[in-house]
């Protein structure tokens, strides 16, 4: 199963903040949208990604104030992304090796969606269930 197929079902919404917006604004957006990461963009350029983990480690534990800290100070600037033709196995391998739970999808230089680890696990499970159903049908129908 590919990233493109999963995005077709889940949609290609990308929630973003500007680099000068506060961490508080980013957290508010995450809460409103029930998500765990936002992309930091300026115009058409993606500058970074900011997730709940960054909030706990780089804001709370460092004693920073979320209303006085711009997202640019605590984002990850080197963003790992995927293209729509990649498979769910590729995504799992990337998320495991890079230790991240969010993968922006980029197509023709523009953001086309974001996959979370939850989206990937859901897609892999439904793919496996499909295979199980097919095999059961094969067995019970006599091959
Ligand atoms: P997460 O597990 O997604 O909350 O992210 C763990 C750490 O990796 C945080 O520092 C994030 O900013 C960073 N991170 C998450 N997703 C990505 C990504 N796609 N590219 C680069 N860094 C990321």
Task: Describe the secondary-structure layout.
Layout (H helix, E strand, L loop, with lengths): L2 H8 L5 E2 L5 H11 L3 E6 L2 E7 H9 L27 H11 L3 E6 L2 E7 H24 L3
Parallel strand pairs: 1-2
Antiparallel strand pairs: 2-3, 4-5
Helix pairs in contact: 4-5
The protein binds adenosine monophosphate.
Word description of this protein:
The chain is an alpha+beta fold and 143 residues long. It has a single domain (3-140), classed as CBS-domain (Roll). It is built from five helices and five strands. A three-stranded mixed beta sheet has the order 1-2-3. A two-stranded antiparallel ribbon has the order 4-5. A hairpin with a 2-residue loop joins strand 4 (102-107) and strand 5. The radius of gyration is 18 Å and the shape is elongated. It starts with a helix and ends with a helix. The model has no long low-confidence stretch (mean pLDDT 96). Bound molecules: adenosine monophosphate (AMP). Adenosine monophosphate (AMP) binds at residues 36-37, 49, 51-54, 76, 79-80, 100-104.
Using the CA coordinates, give the radius of gyration: 18 Å
Structural class: alpha+beta
Helix content: 40-55%
Helix count? 5
Mean pLDDT value: 96
Report the CATH topology name: CBS-domain
Strand/helix succession: HEHEEHHEEH
Number of domains: 1
**Do you know the CATH architecture?**
Roll
Which CATH C-level class is it? Alpha Beta
Widest sheet: strand order?
1-2-3
Q: Count the E strands.
A: 5
Main sheet properties: 3 strands, mixed
Question: What global shape is seen?
Answer: elongated
As an assembly, this protein is: single chain
Ions, cofactors, ligands: which are bound? adenosine monophosphate
Q: Output the CATH homologous superfamily.
A: CBS-domain
Residue share in β-strands: 15-25%
């Amino acid at each position: 199963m590919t990233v493109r197929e999963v995005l077709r079902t889940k949609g290609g919404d990308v929630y973003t903040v500007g680099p000068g917006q506060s961490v508080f604004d980013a957290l508010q957006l995450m809460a409103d949208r029930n998500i765990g990461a936002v992309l930091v963009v300026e115009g058409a350029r993606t500058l970074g990604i900011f997730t709940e983990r960054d909030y706990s480690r780089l804001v709370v534990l460092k004693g920073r104030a979320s209303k006085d800290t711009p997202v640019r100070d605590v984002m990850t600037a080197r963003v790992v992304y995927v293209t729509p033709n990649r498979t769910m196995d590729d995504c799992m391998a990337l998320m495991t090796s890079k230790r991240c739970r969010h993968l922006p999808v980029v197509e023709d230089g523009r953001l086309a969606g974001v996959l979370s680890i939850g989206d990937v696990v859901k897609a892999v499970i439904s793919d496996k269930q499909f295979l199980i159903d097919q095999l059961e049908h094969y067995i019970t129908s006599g091959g």
